[in-house]
Amino acid sequence: MAVDKNLFLHDLAVVAILKNEGHYLKEWLDYHLLAGVDHFYLYDNESPDNQAEVAKPYVEEGLVDYFPAPGKSMQHIVYTEAVKRFKFHCRYMAFIDGDEFIYPKLTGGGDIIEVIDKIFSRDPRAGGLEISWQIFGSNGQEKADYSRGVLERFTRRALNNQNSNPLCKSVLNPRRVNVMTAHCASYFEESYAVNSNNEIKRTPGHMTPPLTDKIVVHHYHTKSLEEYILKRQRGRADRFTSVDYNNAKFYSDEQFKGHDCNDEFDDGIVKYRDVRAKTYQPPDMAHADERLFNALANNLSPTLLPTTPPQFYAGKMETFLTCRAVSSYLKKKLTDDAPAKFFEEASLKAILKSLNGMSLTDARLLLSELPAILNLPYPVVNDVRIACLNIIPQMMNVMHLNERLKDYSELEYLRRLLQTWKPQ
Cys-Cys crosslink for 193: which of 12, 26, 57, 201, Cβ 3.0 to 4.6 Å? Predict the structure, then answer.
């Protein structure tokens, strides 16, 4: 059952790890704001250029959270961290690079969220949408021209056929994700990724032939030859490999030729951006706290009534866990935290009533939130602990039958911790 979108700070957030994207960042941010993104979690991988300065006005407007991410091959690490840290702040999260632009192909210039909502509404178990790449080439340009944007400079791409690059990027419900990688996610049991035709993905992160009629990711991998050569100094964010491998092989002349695809003219994304710019309204964060409180009241008020039937709680575990997280967020933010505490405790009581008939996905989400729940100072917390002690053996049996030994061991460890936990 879909969670009330008013319970989230952000409808759609983009997560990206960036390095030396100062020349391109403003265009990339502005385009995605026009396309329906309302927040960004950006991780700076030791950029020596002016990337942070370009991001600064967006940070000050509350549109960007900007984090340092030093080290090599950090992409998988920061992606999974973003899921775990912000999954209750965002209804959807997209994971793309600074040279990638999500382009929803809707009549009348609809936004990304319209496409995602339509696809997810057809399958309640869909946890993510994998979107095909379209590879754009250099347009024959050898020199960089930073006076114009990427979208205007590069308007020729590979043909959409069986031989196109099969890689995908993901937009997903972060509350159903266990681990996130560069191109796909590992989802909790009973959730999975779909493509834009609502077909379950059997080969995560790949799609052959590509699907490009509803939504695509335009990938400007090469840009001009001069800009491509500069990439060699940056290396890759998604591979645990040596610098020599990154520079000598992945960014070789052969790789440039392989990605320099200029077969077909396509300026659709430029026209789409211009249409969106005519009606764009920036995200309204001024009344976010008020909206969140109203959403908490709307979703939790029925749980306070003794006449509310048990079937009301069916399929609402994700909703009540979101309510708990939103209450905690407001409790830390506001001087008078009494209303937030009231809703936080009400959320925990509702969680208990949602246990019967919950899905495996909901069970995994509940167990993943236990560290945060067990630190709360309410008597109902111990009831949640006891309930989870009863759930874990059933989950362990599922892991055993499916030979998920790592998950089995983690659940066994969690079970032992819960047995020895004492109320605060």
Answer: 201
H helix intervals, 233-337: 243-245, 253-259, 268-277, 288-300, 317-333
Whole-number Å distance between alpha carbons of 255 and 258: 5
Task: Answer whether CATH 3.90.550 is correct for domain 5-277.
Answer: yes
Q: Among candidates 78, 26, 68, 15, which has minimal Cα distance to 44?
A: 68
Angle (nearest 5°) at CA 315 between 309 and 317:
100
Extract the tokens encoding 117.
């909502």
CB contact at 8 A, 194 and 211? no
| β pairing state of 192-194 and 126-135 | parallel
For the chain, the domains span 5-277, 288-420
Which pLDDT value is given to residue 234? 67
Residue for token digits 């991780």? 43
**pLDDT tens-digit readout, 46-59:** 999 999 999 999 99
Report percent pLDDT > 90 for the chain.
Answer: 74
Q: Is the model's pLDDT at 413 over the cut of 80?
A: yes
Give the residue-averaged pLDDT of 291-311: 96
Cis-peptide, bond into residue 124, ω within 30° of zero: no
Q: Are 102 and 171 in contact (CB under 8 A)?
A: yes
**Torsion angles phi and psi, residue 155, rounded to 5:** -125, 15
Q: How far apart are CA 4 and CA 343, in angstroms?
A: 16
**Strand extents, DSSP E, 53-147:** 64-68, 90-95, 100-104, 126-135
| Alpha-carbon dihedral angle through residues 15, 251, 257, 238, given to the nearest 10 degrees | -30
Answer whether 240's CB lies under 8 Å from 182's CB.
Answer: no
